């Protein structure tokens, strides 16, 4: 009886040994499951890290798109048009400056300056009449189609805001001069004549056309 019990012990030991790995396997199962979950979460985390790394690249593009004016936004469209007009005016001034620096005015500019030169000549004639005391003759010299032609040319040549403002001052002083001469007042005519010539010189400088004119 005792011998049979002794022989049975190895079987019991073997059974225990067999159960031990199974128990250990069951004990490790939650750990493996947790490890599997971490592996599954690792992919989204890596993807998220990639998105975060790409964010600085994507943000400037969105800002660049925001700078493009919407056609429906009238304020931005008008601002863009104004900037374009200023740029064109600056380019035109640069072209004129280059032409004058080489002392070779282009033919287009020469044609544009013809009415201005006529205005200068007419003002000189009117000034000479005022100097001699003949206000009536001065009034005749200070009127005529040259006034309208000069105003049209000055408007066309005034590319900048300062030139446009100076041109408006010339027109105002010239109108005052004509009125004074028509009234027969020599004193008022002479004062208006001086103001007109001064504003004309200022406009020619602001419009960058003084180098192509004679008599100023």
Written account of the structure:
With 216 residues, the chain is mostly helical. The protein has 3 domains: 8-68; 71-104; 105-211, Four Helix Bundle (Hemerythrin (Met), subunit A). Helix content is 85%, strand content 0%. The chain contains 7 helices and no strands. It has helices spanning 2-66, 74-101, 107-132, 135-141, 145-157, 161-183, 186-206. Helix 3 (107-132) packs antiparallel against helix 4 and helix 5 packs antiparallel against helix 6. The radius of gyration is 46 Å and the shape is elongated. The protein starts with a helix and ends in a 10-residue tail after the last helix. Residues 1-25, 27-43 and 54-69 have low confidence and may be disordered.
List keywords for this structure.
7 helices; Four Helix Bundle (Hemerythrin (Met), subunit A); mainly alpha; elongated; disordered N terminus; 216 residues; 3 domains
């Amino acid at each position: 009886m005792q011998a049979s019990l002794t022989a049975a012990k190895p079987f019991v030991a073997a059974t225990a040994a067999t159960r031990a790995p199974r128990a250990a396997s069951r004990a490790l199962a939650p750990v493996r499951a947790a490890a599997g979950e971490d592996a599954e979460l690792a992919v989204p985390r890596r993807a998220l890290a990639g998105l975060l790394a790409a964010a600085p690249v994507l943000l400037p593009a969105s800002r660049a798109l925001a700078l493009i004016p919407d056609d429906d936004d009238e304020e931005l469209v008008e601002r863009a048009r104004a900037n374009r007009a200023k740029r064109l005016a600056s380019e035109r001034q640069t072209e004129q400056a280059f032409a004058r620096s080489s002392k070779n005015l282009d033919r287009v500019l020469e044609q544009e300056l013809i009415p201005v030169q006529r205005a200068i000549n007419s003002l000189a004639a009117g000034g000479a009449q005022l100097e001699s005391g003949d206000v009536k003759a001065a009034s005749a010299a200070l009127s005529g189609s040259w006034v309208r032609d000069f105003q049209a040319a000055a408007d066309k040549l005034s590319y900048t805001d300062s030139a446009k403002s100076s041109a408006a001052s010339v027109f105002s002083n010239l109108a005052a001069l004509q009125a004074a001469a028509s009234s027969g007042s020599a004193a008022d005519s002479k004062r208006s004549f001086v103001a007109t010539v001064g504003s004309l010189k200022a406009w020619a400088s602001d419009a960058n056309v003084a180098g192509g004119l004679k008599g100023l």
